[in-house]
Amino acid sequence: MKKRRFVLTxxxxxxxxxxxxxxxxxQCIDYADKANGNIVNAGYDVEIAGRKVKxxxxxxxxxxxxxxxxxxxxxxxxxxxxxxxxxxxxxxxKKHNMSGSVQLTQKLFDPTFPLVLKASKISxxxxxxxxxxxKEQAAYSIxxxxxxxxxxxxxxxxLHSTLNTSGNLLKSxxxxxxxxxxxxxxxxxxxxxxxxxxxxxQQSELNLAQSLNxxxxxxxxxxxxxxxxxxxxxxxxxxxxxxxxxxxxxxNRTDYQLQKIAVKAFEADKSRNQVGYLPTLNFSADLxxxxxxxxxxxxxxxxxxxxxxxxxxxxxxxxxxxLQRQQRIAQANxxxxxxxxKMAQSEQSIRLDLSNYENQYRTAVNNIKNExxxxxLSESVYKNTQLQYQEGMAxxxxxxxxxxxxxESTNNYYAKLLNLYIARINLEQGKGNLLNYxxxx
Length: 441
Prior knowledge:
Blueprint: H1 2-18, E1 21-23, H2 25-35, H3 37-58, E2 63-72, E3 78-83, E4 86-91, E5 96-109, H4 113-178, H5 184-219, E6 227-229, H6 241-245, H7 254-274, E7 280-293, E8 304-316, H8 324-390, H9 396-430, H10 434-440
């Protein structure tokens, strides 16, 4: 068991010390901005939305098209002409025919264009906010896992120290037993306690390895990479809860911003349908030519060539569409109302979550103070009992009980410490301020 524990410890610690790359919490989040698959795809969505805006702008620019055709009449058609009192069948056209043209089309007046362009820009804003939300979600997961890993590491360090102390006591008790100064039951009790501690250390090492793997996953880092965490545990500042929540601004919440954008999108859709009753005016210019010949010599200047050109203005006036546009406007109005209701619900939900996070943080701060005091007292009792046991003033049963109580206090303290970190991260997330908090911590 000792050998196995040593191997596990070496595997977990030696690579970190010798070959690992150090990462602070901020560096982990910066790494995720470039490697996390969800963030990368959200970035592509932003670029796609920007391209769509440019695509829409392109619809108002001149459109130029060219066309060409060649026709070989294998069997030339004929037409009947009455000439000189006699009907005569005459060939209709030539065997080889070629035509080409260039056409320019320009929108002169399209009332829907600025609104469609506005809708495209709204979609771009939506993609930007979605990217921000994706980054916030990744930062939230990374922060929780980062501090969980730190707490596990500190807990493991404490367990190692306690295990080392328990091992020394076990050796001392075995020597005393061999000298006839202790009983076998004393050795057995301390050995059971030592074995339990060893199992806790092994479980802690496993938890640390799994937590590091989870962190690398959220970062988008290959799981086989080896990293070390350079931040210490989170500092608990002296700000009061009132100071922490005084900077809350609903506009900082990305989910709320997305709700506002949804309302703007439906309003733009309504406006687009409303201006659909207005006429549109387009202009086009054509320049081309047609050639015909009995021989395949048109490309060499043979045959007959006839140029043609035209300027065209086309006006389209909507008159009656079966009330379709009216129904689309009505649908847009309903969607606007639905979105506003969702906005109100979102605001209520955000304020409810923030209130819960405030209570959780307040409770976590109070709990950590109590647990820290309990841990200090428990550690003091544990050390005093060790001395008393070595001097023969305390029994092995008392020592084991005190050691168990100390381990319980240690576990409670680190559990409450992790709860405190989670509560603070939730509070900053609830305010929509997590990224700023991490950048400035």
